[in-house]
Amino acid sequence: MVRFKNRYITVEIVCPFVSEDKPLHLKPKIFHDTLLSKIQLLHGDFGVAAVTNGFLTKYCNENTRIAIIRSRHGPHRFVTSSLPFITKIGKLDVKLNTLHVGATLKHSFKFIEKHQRAYLDSMWSKLKTDEERQKLEAAVLDYTKTDVAINIENIA
Prior knowledge:
Layout: E1 6-14, H1 28-52, E2 56-61, E3 66-72, H2 76-82, E4 88-89, E5 92-93, E6 95-102, H3 105-124, H4 130-140, H5 148-155
Antiparallel strand pairs: 1-3, 1-6, 2-3, 4-5
Helix pairs in contact: 1-2
Protein name: Ribonuclease P/MRP protein subunit POP5
Function: Component of ribonuclease P, a protein complex that generates mature tRNA molecules by cleaving their 5'-ends.
Subcellular location: Nucleus, Nucleolus
């Protein structure tokens, strides 16, 4: 039996035209398809064929603008080399920053938790009531924002 190694790429989505206090309306399916089309453009059919097996968008948070992409070890280099060249996702002008590349999803979530705690500390000073703070904390620390439909499509 062969064990397949994966890499989890944590990406920050920077959108200069949408203010940081508003959620970024971005579907994981659009993000996934945009990334595959950019890999096709840069690395051709070989890059897409290498990346497609095991390629998933595992997590996408609209509030903190962070996404996790799963890719196989080896072809993950095609993904990470294509990320800086993405300037548009759907109708949004964006810039993607690679924050972390990890071997396990657990370590990626640990990194995201540290990153999002820093984000919460900076945003709490702008909020006035405790209710607003609790809503923001619940939205930021929600790790269930994943589109299960595209993940099921790609697993089969």
